[in-house]
Write a structure and sequence with these properties.
The protein contains eleven helices and ten strands. With 293 residues, it is α/β, with parallel strands linked by helices. The protein folds into two domains: 177 residues, 3-Layer(aba) Sandwich (Rossmann fold), CATH 3.40.50; 99 residues, N-(1-d-carboxylethyl)-l-norvaline Dehydrogenase, domain 2 (Orthogonal Bundle), CATH 1.10.1040.10. It has an eight-stranded mixed beta sheet, sandwiched between helices. Strands 9-10 form a two-stranded antiparallel sheet. Helix 1 packs across helix 2. The longest helix has 20 residues. It is globular and about 55 Å long. The termini are far apart. Nicotinamide-adenine-dinucleotide binds next to helix 1 and helix 4.
Length: 293
């Protein structure tokens, strides 16, 4: 069965889905973008156009490349519309039940040779693969945020992932001009296993009153040379995503050192999810980020 990848289906047109769509379309792939409603799908396609527009303004791509790439991105009104895709990247909300439902519904519509990749930040690839009809053609393809700018993609094999699936995914990422690192299938893989406990610790530092939002971010930007402070980064990632990853680490590794900070839980319960809701550790509503603590 041929594994040549020409058309990519993306399920979930949020910040990651849009970024992945942009990268794939610019690399010459046809892209079909799906989400839960026609409005979200349309917003996703428009969002890809807007992101590429900003890339043109910054001189990263030229206007002709944007136009050609945008012509390759189409809306997929349902999972059935992904039946002609060679690779489907699931980039929906970081919630195992949501992802399992998508995968179960998706499989009957796919070509027999199609590969499924998931962009999950933390959930077991083996467990997600087990609900599909093709665990041997299932792989973790973990892009970083923002996908167009970040060089790394983590590849994670599930227990059943075949070598030719891994090779096809590797070639696909190379065609995108990105670099892979390979992680075993353990909670949160490599990048988030290290990054998210650091962010969670920053929230504990805030929770315990060791420093203010500004003090913590300044400390890590200037004291550890991080390009962004950990709380600024948490807002950028999305506090719901941060909490989900910590919960997966906590449950998956059963170690209290991964206990999500109660203050992180409180922000998520308030719906203060960071940049995407315009409020998190900073308030973005006035245009200039103002610390919320
Ligand atoms: P997001 O909240 O911006 O977008 C998620 C999208 O999924 C939403 O548009 C939502 O409507 C859609 N969705 C929910 N249920 C769906 C369904 N049944 N069918 C189709 N679409 C559905 O989240 P995000 O930050 O783009 O994260 C998406 C995935 O990427 C998650 O698995 C996350 O862990 C992972 N990821 C996130 C980051 C990050 O920094 N935010 C980085 C790497 C990977």
């Amino acid at each position: 069965m041929s594994l040549e990848i020409r058309k990519i289906g993306i399920v979930g047109a949020g910040q990651m889905g849009k970024g992945i769509a942009q990268v794939c379309a610019l690399a010459g792939y046809d892209v079909a973008l799906n989400d839960v409603s026609p409005e979200k799908i349309a917003a996703g396609v428009d969002g890809v156009g807007a992101m590429m527009g900003r890339a043109v303004e910054r001189g990263q791509i030229d206007a002709a490349a944007r136009k050609a790439a945008l012509a390759r991105v189409s809306p997929a009104p349902s999972l059935q519309a992904l039946g002609d895709c060679d690779l489907i990247i699931e980039a929906a909300t970081e919630n195992e039940e949501i992802k399992r439902t998508i995968l179960v519904d998706l499989c009957p519509t796919l070509k027999p040779g199609a590969i499924i990749g998931t962009n999950t930040s933390s959930i077991s690839i083996t467990r997600l693969a087990s609900v599909t009809d093709r665990p041997e053609r299932f792989i973790g393809v973990h892009f970083m945020n923002p996908a167009p700018r970040m060089q790394l993609v983590e590849l994670i094999r599930g227990i059943a992932t075949e070598d030719k699936t891994f090779e096809a995914a590797k070639q696909f990422i190379a065609k995108l001009g990105k670099t892979i690192t390979v992680s075993e299938d353990f909670p949160a893989f490599i990048v988030n296993r290290i990054l998210l406990p650091m962010i969670n610790e920053a929230v504990y530092t805030l929770y315990e009153g060791v420093g203010s939002v500004e003090a913590i971010d300044t400390a890590m930007r200037l004291g550890a040379n991080h390009p962004m402070g950990p709380l600024q980064l948490a807002d950028f990632i999305g506090l719901d995503v941060c909490l989900s990853v910590m919960q997966v680490l906590h449950e998956g590794l059963a170690d209290s050192k991964y206990r999500p900070c109660p203050l992180l839980v409180k922000y998520v319960e308030a719906g203060w999810l960071g940049r995407k809701t315009e409020r998190g550790f900073y308030d973005y509503r006035s245009g200039t980020p103002v610390p919320t603590r």
